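Pipeline run #58 for the internal structure catalog. This entry was flagged by the ingest filter as a single-chain record with no existing model, so it goes straight to prediction. Upstream metadata was stripped on purpose; only the residue string is passed forward. Reviewer on rotation: M.T. Logging verbosity set to normal.
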Amino acid sequence: MTNEASSTPAKPIENNAAWKAIVARYQKPSRWRATWQIMDTIVPYALAWYLMFLCRTISWWLVWPLAVLAGALLVRVFIIFHDCGHGSFFKSRTANDLVGFLAGILTFTPYYHWRWEHAIHHGSAGDLDKRGTGDVWTMTVQEYLESSRWKKFAYRLARNPLVLFVIAPLFLFLIRQRFPSPKASRRERHSVYAMNLALLAMAVALSFVFGLTTYVLIQLIILLVAGGAGVWLFYVQHQFEGVYWERGEDWSYVAAALQGSSFYKLPRILQWFSGNIGFHHIHHLSPRIPNYNLERCHQADPLFQDVKPITLLSSLKSFTFRLWDEKHKQLVSYRQLRKMRKQTVPPPRT
């Protein structure tokens, strides 16, 4: 079993310090670009809500497509929220925090609490010894084989596509993020409480305008579309053929960025809705690069372009990945695991 789709080998990447000078040129936020992105995202999102308000008394067949469109736009809103959390969207910290909080209301995500957990993800992505915060639950083959029957069932359930991309996003955005982590600091905890109050105020206001039942149905559809798409993007960015995982002593930040984060080459319209986050290898190399500069940075040097892209079609293979095989350094399916176990079982004595 070989790792055929692996990207540029880790050693040349680690020895090449030129990337630092390159990414530094694209870390400078642009007030104009940031403002325009807010306008071309929030205005269509608000317009979609207004059209749903007008259409609700005509036909729900007109409301559903608008709700799906609003869900797609909410993915782009989350990218703005995400960049503010990294302090990369605006030069001003105050502007980042303010816009990040407001975007957090739309995305049902507490700003400071999420920023804290996401920073942990960036410092541990691809490190087998630091799994568990801000990532998708991933077990190694050995861990899975040594687990109890109940834990195996729970893991299979958590990795089931219906649970992972439909049920889990709704649970995450509607329930899980209403409660702070026990490890969170005072500011992170308070950000959760403040967000809960803001969401309650928004829900009351929109329920008054649309009616409670109508608002809840529309909001659920929007969150289902945005949450499912968002979780899929996050999943495929770190669960793909040729992905990089290492133990702490062998882990490399640069290799984890350029080999452990995918270059998801999407059609132009999907790239727009996803806020260029498909250039995830660049983002993990330097989280201070705003999303509107990611593509330009990727095109700036062959070092980045050597990273093998994942297309929309080839990314579907990620549905089959379940476990990390440390021996062969690749993700495997349950089917591959069964095959490996058959090959290692000694033949019966005659």
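catalog note: The chain has one domain: 10-126+160-312.
catalog note: Residues 165 and 231 are 6 Å apart (CA to CA).
status: ready for reviewer M.T.
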